[in-house]
Structure formats: C-alpha cells, structure tokens
Amino acid sequence: QLYDIGVIGLGVMGKNLALNIADNQYKVAAFDLDAHKVQDTVQQEERERKQYLKQITEPRILGCNNLSEMLSKLEKPRVLLLSVPAGAPVDGVCKSLIEAGIESDDIVIDTGNSLWTDTVEREQRYSKDFAFFSCAVSGGEVGARFGPSLMPSGSLTAWNRIEPIWQAIAAKVDAKTGLPIERFEPGNPVIEGEPCTTYIGPAGSGHYVKMVHNGIEYADMQLICEAYQLLHQGLGLTAAEVGDVFERWNQGSLNSYLMEISADVLKQADPLTGAPLVEMILDKAGQKGTGLWTAVSSLQIGCPAPTIAEAVYARAVSTQKSQRQQLNQLLSGPSESIKVEEQQAFINQLENALYCAKVSCYAQGFQLMAMQAKEQGWQLDFAEIAKIWRAGCIIRATFLQSITQAYQQDSELENLLMADTFAKGLSDKQHDWRIAVSTAAMGGIPAPCISSALAYYDSYRSVTLPANLLQGQRDYFGAHTFERTDRPAGEKYHLNWSSDRCLHKV
Ligand code: 6PG
C-alpha cells in the first residue's frame, strides 16, 4: 500500500504533525536520522490507536529506515513535509532527497521557522529537482498535535495538491462566534468550523507573515510581562494575585492564549521550594531570531515597528544581568515605587493601557506586512491572515475577530488604527494608557513596549513632527537640502548656513 505523505524530522513539531495527519485519515510515512525518534512516533501512534480508535487495526504511521525507503512508499507525485531546524538542515535534507531519487513533480514542504528570503531562494534553487513549497506553522506542540495555524506559500499547483490535508489538520474556528473550537483528544479531530489555513501567496510570503506573527508574539509577551512587573514590583501584588488579575482580564477584551498561560505560569508553585515558580525562574530571556528578523525587516523597509523592536531589546537587556546588577548600585531612581491613589482603579487603567498597546503593536505588524507585500508584489489578504490567527497559533486572541472584520470592511486599510472600532477604542482609553506609562516612568519601572506603543500612537496622530528641525540640521551640516511647506513637493532647497545664509533652489 502507498502512503499519502512523508514526514521528515520527528522532533516535537514533526512527531505531533505526523500524529495529527494520521488522526485525519491520511497515511503517513515517517523518518528521522535518529531511529529512536522514529520508534517513539510509531509507538505513540500504536498506543493512541489502541486506546482511542479500537476499530482501526492497521498502523497509520510507517516508520522508515532511510529516505529511499520513504520515497518508495509514497503515492506520486509525492508530498514530503520537512520539520527540521531552520537554516543548513533544510538544505541538508533537500540534498539527501535528491540523492535518494526524488522526482521533479514531488513536493517538499518546509514547515520550520525559515528566514523568508531563504525560502524564496530555495524555490529557485531546487526548481529542477522538485517543487519546493513552504508552510509556516504556529501553535507549538499542542497546536501541531490538535490543530495549528498554517501559513502556506509557493506554487499554486503544490497548494492544490496539499490543501485538503492542510484544511483537515488545521485548527478550527466557529464560523458564527469567531472563537476556537478546542478538542484535545487523540483520534478525534475537529472537523467542523473554519480551518486556520489559507494560501498566503508566492514563495516566501508565508514565512514573512509567520515572521511578523512572531514579532507580534514577542511584543505581546513583553507587554504582559511589563504589566506583571508594574503590578508585582509596583503595587506589591504577589505572583498569584497578578495571576488572578490576568485571569480576570482574560475574560474581557484582552482575552488571549498568551494572557491565559501567563496567569497559569504566575499561579504555579515551585515543586522544589514551594515559592512561586516564576520567582525561581532566572530573568534572562532566550530567543531564536524571528523577532529580531521582524525588527530588522521593519528598519530595512522603513516601516515603524518600535514595539516589536523594543520587545527584542527587552530580551537583550534581560540577558545582561551582571551589568544590571552593577548599575543598580550606581544609578539612582525614584525614592518610592509607584504611587497610585486607588489600587483597583489603577489595575483597570492598566488593563485599558494594555489593550491600547496591543492594538498598536498589531497595527505595526500589519502595516509591516502591507509594506513588504507592496515591495514584493504579493497580494496579501489581511482579513484572511487575521482569520487564520484566531485559533491554533500563539497570538490567538478574541480581538483578532475585530481585526478580521476591520479588513473585511476595508481590505485596503492603510493602518489598523484607522478602523472605526480601533480608532474609537483607543481614543476612549488613551488617557488610561498615559496614566500607565507615566506611573511606570515616575516609579522607575521600565515599560519599553507599553511606552513605545503609545509613542507610535502619538506619532501617527501628529500632523506636525519635529522632522522640520531635523531636515534643518541635515541641511546645516551636510547640505542635504529640504522641501518647503509653501512650495510644491519635490522642490529642494539649501541654505548657505556657514556663509551668506542665502537660500538656493537646488
Ligand atoms: C509559534 C512560535 C514558535 C517559536 C517559539 C520560540 O508560533 O508556534 O512562534 O514558532 O519558535 O515561540 O520563539 P523564540 O525562541 O524566539 O522565543
């Protein structure tokens, strides 16, 4: 018998994707360089089948010993899903597949967090050997197992071939409510609802969209962390009390997966000492690079995404613990921590501030995707992108439904802040946002993301910015010229600052 799809790389993501595909009645051939991982995947399939699917007796996953064996077991044109670390390993497997006899109409799908430009290059490089396709995956281990958000891009022929599998394995959203349909049981996939996958566009676009998803993820996480520090260090709430506040916030407009897990993390006691676990976790943040790529891309293309960049910097500052310890002895701050008149009132203001900052950072991410799409000639459908982020992915949040609706009403929306619902929401809540930022500043508690999000909001609502003085400075030292407010755009002027101070049209 022939198998529907080959999964190469059986780490956490690969194994769970393979099991998810098998649950959706597709037959999987699986391979990993580490034979133990192959065995582990096959055994897990068997255990789950015996427990949950008693009527099925045949194994749904075949463990392969090598790539040649895998290729011989697959239906043609073959579909191969790669779940290996981004970078050199992807090319390593592609090379091995060529050696093993892959054919030109076979499809190889990279599901890792690859750099989008690498994906563009790979589609070209392997075009004679096979169809290189990509599909960015969000949702971590549980998402991969029971329904991730999938961002496929590349040739439409390849997409048409894999679309039914992708729709089956993706997370599902209730079409009426826009909320995730969650079911975490092996052998029993969610079949109703709207699947969180859509064809994003040409090669690289899916990975770009996932990269921006991750940039937003970095900012969203950091925003929640800043709120935690304000409540814990500032107001003196215990970790568990902050967890309670987050649980309450999670019932309202801040409802999101990241808020939910943050509450859970804060309420967890350390199994070793009994102290709040969060206080036993070293405050040095790791990163694998996708947030950094987002910030770099925003700088390269000239699209402001300050909150995403600040989130990357916040992780960097966190790693410099010994410098922070030294400077703590040298630099003074306010004598008292934050001062608030009424604790509950401040908590409510912070909730509004967090909502505003979150909208601001999503606005930055969507604007970045729009600018890059224009540059690359991609036709990105932002309503669809917001839709497939409503479930399965790490940044899933109730308010993605409002983003979906905003783009459904106006697909050309230049900036999310222009959508009625967000313009009104932020205008109503901006006062509380300012209280949160100023309280943090006066209390000496860093809140780089909440503040930079506000600076973004204020910059975009400013008709006049001090760039006039900046242009004057540039013209002064470098004769870089400036345009005049009373002359047609594009007309350049220079003043002879160091001599006769005459004005010249250049
Ligand atoms: C997802 C996540 C995932 C990412 C991790 C780790 O959407 O499932 O974005 O792809 O790799 O969250 O990212 P960092 O190690 O950079 O925090």
From TrEMBL:
The 6-phosphogluconate dehydrogenase C-terminal domain sits at 206-498
Q: In which pathway does this enzyme or protein participate?
A: Carbohydrate degradation; pentose phosphate pathway; D-ribulose 5-phosphate from D-glucose 6-phosphate (oxidative stage): step 3/3
Function according to Swiss-Prot or TrEMBL:
Catalyzes the oxidative decarboxylation of 6-phosphogluconate to ribulose 5-phosphate and CO(2), with concomitant reduction of NADP to NADPH.
Q: What is this protein called?
A: 6-phosphogluconate dehydrogenase, decarboxylating
User: Which InterPro entries does the UniProt record give?
Assistant: 6-PGluconate_DH-like_C_sf, 6PGD_dom2, 6PGDH_C, 6PGDH_Gnd/GntZ, 6PGDH_NADP-bd, 6PGdom_BS, NAD(P)-bd_dom_sf, Pgluconate_DH
Q: Which family does it belong to?
A: Belongs to the 6-phosphogluconate dehydrogenase family.
Describe the protein's quaternary organization and the partners it interacts with: Homodimer.
Catalysis: reaction(s): 6-phospho-D-gluconate + NADP(+) = D-ribulose 5-phosphate + CO2 + NADPH
- The primary gene name is gnd
| UniProt keyword Oxidoreductase present | yes
List keywords of the entry alphabetically: Gluconate utilization, NADP, Oxidoreductase, Pentose shunt
Enzyme Commission number(s) of this protein? 1.1.1.44
Q: Name one Pfam family in it.
A: 6PGD
Q: What NCBIfam families does the entry give?
A: gnd, PRK09287.1
Q: Which PROSITE patterns match?
A: 6PGD
Organism in which the protein naturally occurs:
Shewanella sairae
Matching entries from PANTHER family are given as: 6-PHOSPHOGLUCONATE DEHYDROGENASE (PTHR11811)
According to the lineage, what is the superkingdom? Bacteria
